[in-house]
Every structure is written in structure tokens, then in C-alpha cells.
Amino acid sequence: MDLSTIIGICVAFGLMLMAILQGGPLGIFIDVPSLLIVVGGTLGNTLVHYPFADVFDALNVAKKTLLYKETSASELITQLMEFANKARKEGILALQGAMNEVEDEFLQKAMQMAVDGQEPATLRSMLATEVEYIEMRHSKGANIFVSIAAYSPAMGMVGTLIGLVQMLQNMSDPSSIGPAMAVALLTTFYGAVIANIFCSPMAGKLKNRSEGEILIKTLMIEGMQSILSGENPRIMEQKLHAFIAPKLRESTFNK
Amino acid sequence: MDLSTIIGICVAFGLMLMAILQGGPLGIFIDVPSLLIVVGGTLGNTLVHYPFADVFDALNVAKKTLLYKETSASELITQLMEFANKARKEGILALQGAMNEVEDEFLQKAMQMAVDGQEPATLRSMLATEVEYIEMRHSKGANIFVSIAAYSPAMGMVGTLIGLVQMLQNMSDPSSIGPAMAVALLTTFYGAVIANIFCSPMAGKLKNRSEGEILIKTLMIEGMQSILSGENPRIMEQKLHAFIAPKLRESTFNK
Amino acid sequence: MDLSTIIGICVAFGLMLMAILQGGPLGIFIDVPSLLIVVGGTLGNTLVHYPFADVFDALNVAKKTLLYKETSASELITQLMEFANKARKEGILALQGAMNEVEDEFLQKAMQMAVDGQEPATLRSMLATEVEYIEMRHSKGANIFVSIAAYSPAMGMVGTLIGLVQMLQNMSDPSSIGPAMAVALLTTFYGAVIANIFCSPMAGKLKNRSEGEILIKTLMIEGMQSILSGENPRIMEQKLHAFIAPKLRESTFNK
Amino acid sequence: MDLSTIIGICVAFGLMLMAILQGGPLGIFIDVPSLLIVVGGTLGNTLVHYPFADVFDALNVAKKTLLYKETSASELITQLMEFANKARKEGILALQGAMNEVEDEFLQKAMQMAVDGQEPATLRSMLATEVEYIEMRHSKGANIFVSIAAYSPAMGMVGTLIGLVQMLQNMSDPSSIGPAMAVALLTTFYGAVIANIFCSPMAGKLKNRSEGEILIKTLMIEGMQSILSGENPRIMEQKLHAFIAPKLRESTFNK
Amino acid sequence: MDLSTIIGICVAFGLMLMAILQGGPLGIFIDVPSLLIVVGGTLGNTLVHYPFADVFDALNVAKKTLLYKETSASELITQLMEFANKARKEGILALQGAMNEVEDEFLQKAMQMAVDGQEPATLRSMLATEVEYIEMRHSKGANIFVSIAAYSPAMGMVGTLIGLVQMLQNMSDPSSIGPAMAVALLTTFYGAVIANIFCSPMAGKLKNRSEGEILIKTLMIEGMQSILSGENPRIMEQKLHAFIAPKLRESTFNK
User: Fold this and answer.
1) Who is most buried in A215, A237, B156, D21, counting CB within 10 A?
2) E105-119 per-position pLDDT tens digit
3) Which is nearest to C211 in space by CA: D37, A29, A54, B187?
4) If you measure CA to CA, which chain D residue comes closest to E168?
């Protein structure tokens, strides 16, 4: 679903592999103890920093990122306008029926609260709290990737320091210095790859996704509050359009 | 249009080329695999971080930056004062006619809302939401350049590490060490050039432009609200002048 | 209790030791003066930065981190719902009896204030002040680890510079250069290990724990205020559920 | 006027020159192409980042920094107290006459607004907007120096990379390696000097100056609002003294 | 008085000296021109950044840090409770007498305002402004140390670059390379020591002290406002206890 993530990782990795293979065999870039110290050490740091459950959640979240279908803000506005018209013609209780077509749980909850006769202010404050805590959970997910992107180069440096110390203590055979230093640099290389090709862009994507989802949820809150307050549909549409880019605004009244 | 951007890039690039050519042929600074790993890898990272659409938007925004004509804050204030006088003499509906001379869509929208008889507070809150979300979209555009400026030196370092490992594994011929290391350093060089000569200053320019545009839109909101509230034109002018530097303030009353 | 912290430290340390032992004897990584300058110097810096008492508190806090049993947010909500039902049926004074089952001192205090007949607004503002200052004390604890993670690599660099200067002043015997530089690098190594394997992840964990505890205390405040205001239990439950992830929400009404 | 700025730059530069001359001729630190790439490249970046006008403003602002005479907060308070007494005895219109002695344009404007009969709340909100936008313009001036301090070491690194690549490609004559590398390092040196001896401290000074000026303007707003509200002079003095350090407070009542 | 600062500096310095002496004579770490460029250059930068007066203030503040006696928050609460009881029994004017026992000028001022019959809201807003500006002045003091900690390693790098360029231009005698490079590294060493052993921890201590003092002053404001409002002493004590750690709370009512 999320083509750009997959293409992006393939492009970055593919070009890196190409550059490696062009200069020599791939084998000299694979060293199991170096890999263990960077990957394992980073995993260890991450487990100290975050509880097990959060780390597994982060992996789930990353998987969802690749499969996630973004809701279109303009389609959501069209849907909310339909609900507004329905509520004006048939009363707020008519939304009960419309709830079945709605897939998003958050919108369902908002509609349920409207049907239950909550005050507009209560609806807004309860849903706003929920959005705030959704944002907090999202940012924890992204922060795990940010942390890994910080720990892996650090572990890479630790590994390189170990390699350098061993090499420097043992310089009797000059011909072995080059290869020993090459191996010492591998941990720095692994750390940089994990941080820069995997984790930093992934953390960025998760933050982007979170912002998109928060925008959608904010539109839902604004829309349901407008419906509940019986606001003029034209004004409501103008209000909701203020949240999105001008070129995405399609008025339901000009159709 | 935006001379300083074009001159700035030419100066920085020209001096760099000059320094390169003075020391030897340009050819030793061109290495296609190195270029591929840095440019392609950075592009890959960027596609993981941002969806396709956002990256294309960013390029569009960058193009617009070079062609953009900034609105003059003092001219806008003069125009708003004319509208205020017109509205005082002929009534708020007279702004309907003046809307045709207005090019800026945001000001048109504000005037339409005033003509439609919105409350000053509603006008302010709806337009303020719009400005807030314009700011968010602008800063996303600038952030893509900030991200590229962070990914390209990282990919440069990854490329240099690959080159160093290959060189160190293969030091039998001492005369090849220098050139091999020179090639390894090229990716770091490319990364530094992309980050520091292109992306960081461009991100800065986009942020500056965004601030300028937000100031203009804030003036529009303040002005239309004053007009709608029927505020004294002298006070309105003083209010608007508070947003700009003293030397740019030209009172319409002293003329 | 806190398995992930212990496992994480063991994994990171174990893999590092493995990598060291695979390349040679452990002995070459132990140098007492180097250790003294990094550990002692970092301790010295920390004592200048923080008073004795705060440093000891931080160690206590770290110990508590390993032994701490997190309160379950969903269990707390269930408990608060029971109190709400009790208060509705038997009056607010009935909470006096329920206070004995409560272990958490903060919740006890909130209940005592409710039983004492405080206004809901007073209860909220006093408890919110308390939460704010708890957060401040927690973040001081985490910041001590952040400071150590900043001072130890700096002391490592100071140590390495000392070693390098001494080595460079004394290069008559080429065979001693390697080992002397290896020893000089050890302080950098110690600094990196202290910062990255111990202190940074520990600071992260303390921040996570603090956030968890603040969430629990926020739920307590919200819940007691709802009870004190005699709010409808269904609404109260919806309000409290807004703070936690959807999959953790278990309504007491569907049972 | 601003002795500390001039002395500071002379001390830092003088000691640097002394250290250079003690170790050899000054000539080896002067290389025109290196200077061009760092100074010109940094200028190019700055022109991309900021429009022409802003860069010239920044130079003006820097010049003003050297010539600026700071207003004394305690003298201003004494002056405001005099105005307060005058206004109490002779009425607010008596300030019209006192306006001629006032040099500061901002204070003149505040007094004019008071004489014009503005409400205290209007006076505060309009002047507060003005202060907010003054602060924004000041911080843009300081930020240009911050940007230059970031671009110049980056251009220095680009220059050094160019020199290193050329040197490494051309190592046939070992005796030329040292001098070639020395030249390559010069761009890094220039970048560090521009950033650390000129721009960073200058940006700091501009920020300090801005804070001082904002404090003075805040005192003017508070003072004029007190006068306009006809507040008790003793209370007004206590209010204004709260903004300054105890040792600077000189009561006009104890005299 | 402030033992931890003195012990901390001695420990860090002592261990550094020990490490130096163990490896060779102290003399090789002393180079007057290097010292001049780092210390003098840093001083120069600082004088550009801050006016003379602020730098001297910072030294005074640092001296005070070593001699400062912290006020105990729990003793202050006990004292405020006594004042509350006194005011309830003998009227607010009875505080006039109690003022003589009070050493802290801020508390004296708060009591004077209470005795003078100020409104609780006026007292709070005036004292809150004062605390805000005290915080600003404190943070300026700490920021001077933060700036020095940033300038000294930068000047160290400038010095090392000067040394390296001179060494590289003059490599005819291989035996002089080592010592020349050792001297070049000394400026980096001095910069690191000034920044990491002196200034960073000192800036941290000043920030800690400021936070402690602000907490004490906040307690004074809250307490005097409670007394002035004639609040129930038990509630007042609960309010004040909310600011401090549970283990420090000693109720005056359980005695």
C-alpha cells in the first residue's frame, strides 16, 4: 500500500549494495561479531529504555505504516456535510442509522456521543483529550525509532573503539593492520546504516502519519460539534475547509 | 524574480568550481557510483520519510520560491485603509465591488465573509485556523529540505565508510592508497555540498517566505476585523502599523 | 520485576564482552588510571552540577526503577468506577471505608480531600500542583543520568588527549606507539560505554516511568473530580477511557 | 561606545595573531582561493537564505550594536514616576508638554496615545503587538549571524575536502604532502574563525541587546498604563521595580 | 558551605593531574601561548557576547554559589504556618512585628505588602513579575557559563588548526613532528578542560540553585496570599505541601 516507503528503502539499499559490489566482494562487509555487537547492543539499549510491550508495539506500528490506507480529508469533509444535511432534515437521531456505514471507530464514537445527546462542549473536550493521548502514544512509537537511530551509531563507535584498541596493541605484522582496521570500521558502518537508512526515515514517516491522523480526527471533532450545534452547513463547510489546502477544497454546494 | 537566491547559489557554486579547477582537473571530483549512492540514497531516505506527493509539492514550492513576488506590507495597509474608508462611507456591502481588484485569494475570502455578514469573532477564528494550517503546510515544505540536508551527509559518510573498508582490505599496492581514499572522500564531499550549498539555505529561505506570508495574512485578518467592527480608521491604522518596522509606516492621514 | 531493564543491560554488556574476548584477552581493556580519570572525573563533574542529596536520590530512583511495579491504568479505572458507584449509592463519606484498600498514597490523599468536603475545583488545583512538582522531581532524577551521559564522553576525550600528548612527545621508540595509543583510546571507550550502555537508556527509562506515573495520577484526579461532582458513571468512564489506548478499554457496563 | 565588544574582538584576534606569529610567518595562513571559497561561499549561502534587504539590515544592526547607548532602566523608572506625578497634579494632558523632552520614539507614541484618550487596555494591547514584532525583527537580525556561524564552518569543510581529494590524487612527491594538507586545512581554519570569533559572539550580543530593549519597552508600557489608570504612584513604583534587580531600585519616595 | 561543588572540582582535577603525572612530567602540558589563545580568546568572545557588567556579575554569582546557604522549604512552610496562625489570632497587622525575624528580603517585601493592605491578587501578580525577572537574571548568569563552555573548545580547535598548519608546512625534520603535534593538541585539551570540568557543571549548578530559589519564592507567594485571603490553615498547609516531596512534609498539626 505505502509504495513510497518500500521504493525508498529499496532504492537506498540497492544503490548501497551496488556501490559495495562494484568495489569488491560483498563478503568483506559481513562480519558476524561486528553485526552482533551493533544490532544486539542497540537492542539491549532499547530494552533498557523502553518496556518490552512498547518495543513490540513499535514493530506493529511500523508494519501498519507499510499497510496503512490514509483517509482523504476532502472525502471526510464531504461525508461530514452529508451527515450535517441528514441531521438538519431528519434530526440528530438519524445519525444512528448512518453510523453503520462509518468504518472509523473514532468517528463512530463521536456520532454515538452526539446521538446520546451530549453537550457540544463535553463532546469536544472528551474527544480532544482522546486525540491528545493518541498523539502521545503515536509519538512514543516514533521515538523508539529515534532512540534506535541514536543508539546504533553509538554502539558502532564502541565496536570500532574495541577493534582499534586490539589492532593497536598488536601491530607486529604491518600487513594485518589494514584488514584489522577495515573490520573495526564495519561496526561504525553498520551503526550508520541502521540509523540513517532504516530508523531515521521510519521515525519521520511515523510522525508524518501521526500528523495526518490527528488532522483527520480534528476534522471529525470540528464537524460533529458543528452538526450538534446545528450550525449553518455553509459555515460548517468553510470552517472545515480552513484545515486543508485550497486546492483540495471541493464545495458540496457548487456541485 | 528572486534575485538573491539565484545570485547566492551562483556565487557559492562558482567559487567552489573555481577552487576545484585551480587545483587540478574537474574530472577527479566526478565519480558516478559515489554520486549515485549519495543522491540516490538521500532520495530513498526522503521517500521513506515523506509520501511521494509531499516530495513533489516541495519541489513545486522551491520553484515558486524562485518566482515568488512578495506582497508589500505597507501597500497592503494602504489598501486596507481604502477599504475601511469605503466601508464607512458606503457600507460594508460596498466591499463586494472592491473584491474584483483584489488578487490575493485569502483577502478575497476575508472580504466575502465580511460581506456575508459574519460576526467579527467568527471571521477571526475561521481565518486564524486557516493561517495556522497554512503555516503547518509551509513548514512541512521547509522540513523536507531540512531532512535532505540531514540525510545527504549521512549517506556521504556511509559511502566513505564503504570506500575506506575496501581500501583497507586491499593495501598491497601503496600507490593506489591515495587515489582510493580520494574517491572514498568524494561521497562525503557530495553530501556536504548537497546539504550546505543547496538544502540548508533553501530551507531557510522557505521559512523566511512563510513568515512573510503569515505576517501579510495576519494583517489581512486584523484589518478586516477592524473594518467589520467599524473601528476608527486612525486607530485601525495605528494597530496595523504596530506589525511593521517604523521606517515602513506611511500614514494615509498625513498625505 | 523490571525484566526488560535487566535483560537489556545483560544483552548489551554480554555482546560487548564477547566481541572483546573474541579479539584478544580482556586485560588490554582494563587500565586503572584511565578508569579513574573517566569514572572519577565524571563523578566530580556530577557533584559540582548536583548537590550530594540529589545524586543519592538519583541512585535510589534508579534502584526503584528495577523493582518498580507499574499500576495498570485499566485496573485503576475499574477501581475508580467502583468508588463512583459506592459514592452514588452510599454517599461520598462511604469512600472513607474504601480508603483502607487503597495502597497508593496519592489516591488516598485525593479520597481524603473528597471525604473532607473540598470543592471539586480546589481538589483539582491542589492535586495538579502536586503532580506538576512530582514531574519536576522526576525529571531532575532523569536529568542526572542525562548529565552523566554528557560528562563521561567529555572526560573520555580529556583522557585521550592526555594520552596522545604524552605519546607524541615521546616517539623515539616506534614499537611503543601502538600500545600507547591503544591506552589513550581506552578513556574514550570507557566514556562511550558509560554514556551509551548505562546512562542514556537509564535516563530514557526514568522518563518513561515518569510519564506512566503522571498518567496514573492524572486519571486519579479526573476520577475523583468526577465522583465529587456526582457525574454520570457512564460519562465518567468514557472520560477516563479517553486517556488510554482503545484496546485497553474494558467497560464495566458491558460485564 | 560599546567598549566590551571592541575590546573583546581585539583581545581574541590579537592573541590569535600572536600565536600565529610566534610559530612562523603570517604568510602561510593566507591563501586567497581558500579565503574566497569560505567567505564567498558563506555569503552565497546567506543570500539564498535571506533576501538582500535583510542582510544589509543585519550589517546596519551590527554597526548600531557598536554605537548603541543603552537606556538605564532605573533612570527610565524615575522619569516615568515624574510623569505620573505630573499627570496626577495637572491632568493627563500635561504629558503633551513633557513629550518634547522624550527622545525615545516608542515612549513618545505611548504618551501620545495616553494624551489622545485611549483606553488603558487598548494602549497595552497595541503597544504589546508592537513589542512582539520588534522582537521578531531583532531576532531575525541575530539569526543572520547565527546562520553565518553555521554556514562558514560547513564551507570550510567543503574547502578542506576539495584540498584533500586533490592532494590524495597526487601523492607522487612525498615532500609536497605536508604543505598541500596545510593549505587544505586553511579553509577549516577560516570557517572556524569566522564562526567563533566573529559571528557567534555577535549574535549573542544582538540577542542581549534585544532583551535589554524589550525590557525597557515593557517598562514603558507598564508605566504608561499605570499613569493612564491613575494608579497610586507608590504601587506603580513597586510594580516597575519588580522588573529590575534589587540593587538597581532607587525609590523616588525615600529621597 | 557548598561542599559538593568544592569536592567535585577537587576530585575531577586531582584525578586528571594524577593521570598526567603518572605518564610523564607535568611540564609537557603547559604551553603559555596555547594557554593564552584559549583563555584569552574565550574571554574575548565572552566580552563581545556579554557586557562587562554581566561578566563580573557572573563571577560574583559563581562565588555566591560556593558560599550560598539554601533555605529549607519545609522550615519555610513551618514559618509561614506560624505567620498564618498569628494573623488569624491577632490580625494581619501583627505580621509587622514578625517581619524583624525574617532575613529574606523577598519575604519581607511580601509581608510589607500584606500589612499595607494590598489585595491578594495584586500581591500575587506583582511578586510573580518579580520572580519572573529574577529567573531571567539567574538564567543570564548560568548562560554566561554555558557560552564559555561553547567558546573554549572552539578556540581550542582554532589553536590546534594553527599548530597543525605550521607543523605541516615544516615537515623537513621528522623527529619534530611528534612534539609539534603534541603542542598543537594542547589547545584542544585546554578548551575541553575549561568547558567540561569548569563551566558546564558550574552552569548546571547555577541552574539548580535558581530552581531551588524560585521554588522558595513561589512558596512565599502562595503562603502570603493564603494568609491574606484568610484561608483555613489546614488547607493552606496542604497547598504548600503539594510543592515539596512527600518525605519532607511535616505537618504542624500532628505535633
Assistant:
1) B156
2) 889 989 988 888 888
3) A54
4) D178
Q: What is the mean pLDDT of residues B115-133?
A: 88
DSSP category for residue B92: G
Report whether pLDDT(E174) > 80.
no
Do B156 and B188 contact (CB within 8 A), yes or no? yes
Residue E46 has a pLDDT of: 92
Handedness of CA A216, A219, A225, A230 (dihedral sign): negative
pLDDT at D255: 47
User: Model's pTM, two decimal places?
Assistant: 0.90
Interface partners of chain E (CB pairs < 8 Å, 3 or more) are: C, D
Inter-chain CB pairs, A–C, below 8 Å: 147
Q: What is the pLDDT of residue E57?
A: 81
State whether D245 and E168 contact (CB < 8 Å). no
Q: Taking a C-beta distance cutoff of 8 angstroms, is the pair A154, C199 a contact?
A: no
**E4 vs C29 pLDDT, higher one:** C29
Contacts of E23 (CB under 8 A, 6+ apart): C33, C162, C163, C166
The shortest C-alpha distance from C189 to chain A (Å) reads 6
- Phi and psi torsions of E231, nearest 5°: -70, 150
Whether residue A165 and residue C28 make contact (CB cut-off 8 A), yes or no, is: yes
- DSSP H helical ranges for chain E: 3-23, 32-35, 41-49, 52-67, 73-90, 95-98, 105-115, 120-168, 177-193, 200-228, 233-241
Element holding B21 (H helix, E strand): helix B3-23
Q: How far is residue C223's CA from residue C237's CA, in Å, rounded to a whole number?
A: 9
Q: How confident is the model at residue C199 (pLDDT cuts 50, 70, 90)?
A: very high
- Residue D172: all three cell numbers together: 607522487
CA dihedral B213, B214, B216, B221 (to 10 degrees): 150
Amino acid found at A40: G
Give the residue from E71, E84, E101 showing the smallest Cα distance to E215. E71
**Interchain touch B–E (≥3 Cβ pairs closer than 8 Å):** no
Distance in angstroms (rounded) separating the CA atoms of residues E39 and A62: 50
What's the start-to-end Cα distance of chain B, in Å?
31
CA distance B131 to chain A (A): 8
Contacts with A55 (C-beta within 8 Å, 6 or more apart), sequence order: A46, A47, A144, C4
Q: Does C30 touch chain A (CB under 8 A)?
A: no
Q: Which residues of A touch B104 (CB under 8 A)?
A: none
Residue E137 in contact with partner chain D when CB distance is under 8 A: yes
> Using CB atoms, which chains have 3+ pairs under 8 A with C?
A, E
Q: Do D16 and E158 make contact, defined as CB atoms within 8 angstroms?
A: yes
What is the least distance, in Å, from the CA of B246 to any CA of chain A? Answer: 32
| D36 has a chain B CB within 8 A of its CB | yes
The CB density around residue A144, as the number of other CB atoms within 10 Å, is 24
Say whether residue D152 is in contact with chain B using an 8 A CB cutoff. no
What does the pLDDT look like over E116-159, one tens digit per residue? Answer: 888 888 889 889 999 998 888 888 888 999 999 999 999 999 99
Whole-number pLDDT of residue C255 = 47
Q: Are B178 and D169 in contact (CB under 8 A)?
A: yes
Could you tell me the pLDDT band of residue E254, with boundaries at 50, 70 and 90? low
The C-alpha of D229 sits at a distance from chain E's nearest C-alpha, in angstroms, of 15
Of B11, B19, B23, the CB nearest to D47: B11
For residue B189, the model assigns a pLDDT of 96
Q: Is the separation of the CB atoms in C67 and C2 below 8 Å?
A: yes
Report which of A171, E157, E26 is spatially closest to residue C165, judged by C-alpha positions: E26
Whether D158 has its CB under 8 Å from any CB of chain B: the answer is yes
For chain D, the average pLDDT equals: 88
Contact E4 C50 (CB under 8 A): yes
For C13-31, b/e burial (b = at least 16 CB within 10 A) is eebbeebbeebeeeebbeb
Give the pLDDT confidence score for residue E116 in this predicted structure.
86
